[in-house]
Amino acid sequence: MALIHKATLSPTKVELLAAWLPSRSWYQGAAGAAVERVASYRFDDPEGEVGIETLLVTAGDGPTYQIPLTYRAAPLEDADEWLVGTTEHSVLGLRWVYDGTGDVVYAEALAQALLTGSGQAQEFIEIDGHLEPRQPSMTITTSLINEFAEARAVTAITHVDPANPTVIETDKLTLTIPRILDRAVSHPGAVLFGTWQAEPASVPLAFALPR
């Protein structure tokens, strides 16, 4: 379950990404292009400590980018290169926002979704002390490959290639995340697909292959 607080962020997630995106090698837009949120999906952290959200955004007239983010209450050790920025959350206080591809909590959550079909976190928003379900802005599915299930318990990241696609080498498997979404992209292994209002045809979001 993902609990969404009725809160304000300063700067907002989109503002953080507008400053961070132009520094990426795979960014195709102009510096200063207006960043717009297209859709997003969330995963659960079993420990309940880290927020895990993947945003789909555009910048100007460019393509749709996929940005996995993790939200933490304290800095992640030895992860400065993955820091997108910090934001003040009106309910939770200061949050450190990381590119999730460098965070093992994201890698483990993505592996679970890819290899078990666990899907995205059910979203709830707190209103006047009550939890109300919130309709997600997109749907994800997986081409479940059962024989890979034993490889899903990721405990460490051994290497990350930050290009497009971003490739995360873990102790159990290789995770591949397209940064620029394209229906024609294909890699071996289990596949995570997504659809959203502007894109009703399935688009590959991530791939997993045991090492």
Which key features would you list for this structure?
15 strands; mainly beta; 211 residues; six-stranded antiparallel beta sheet
Explained architecture:
The protein is mostly beta strands. It contains two helices and 15 strands. The radius of gyration is 16 Å and the shape is globular. The mean pLDDT is 89.
Supply the number of helical segments. 2
Strand content: over 45%
Residue stretches low in confidence (pLDDT < 50, at least 5 long) are none
Q: What's the Cα radius of gyration?
A: 16 Å
Helix content range: under 10%
Average pLDDT number: 89
In total, the number of strands is: 15
Order of adjacent strands in the largest pleated sheet: 2-6-7-5-4-3
* Main sheet: strands, sense, barrel: 6 strands, antiparallel
Shape: globular
Question: Separation of termini?
Answer: 30 Å
What class do helices, strands and sheet pairing give? mainly beta
Task: Please provide the ordered H/E string of secondary-structure elements.
Answer: EEHEEEEEHEEEEEEEE
Task: Summarize the model shown.
The chain is mainly beta and 211 residues long. The protein contains 2 helices and 15 strands.
Q: What topology does this entry show?
A:
Blueprint: E1 2-4, E2 9-10, H1 13-20, E3 35-43, E4 51-59, E5 64-72, E6 83-89, E7 93-99, H2 104-116, E8 123-127, E9 130-134, E10 138-142, E11 157-161, E12 166-170, E13 173-177, E14 190-196, E15 199-210
Parallel strand pairs: 1-8
Antiparallel strand pairs: 2-6, 3-4, 4-5, 5-7, 6-7, 8-9, 10-14, 11-12, 12-13, 13-15, 14-15
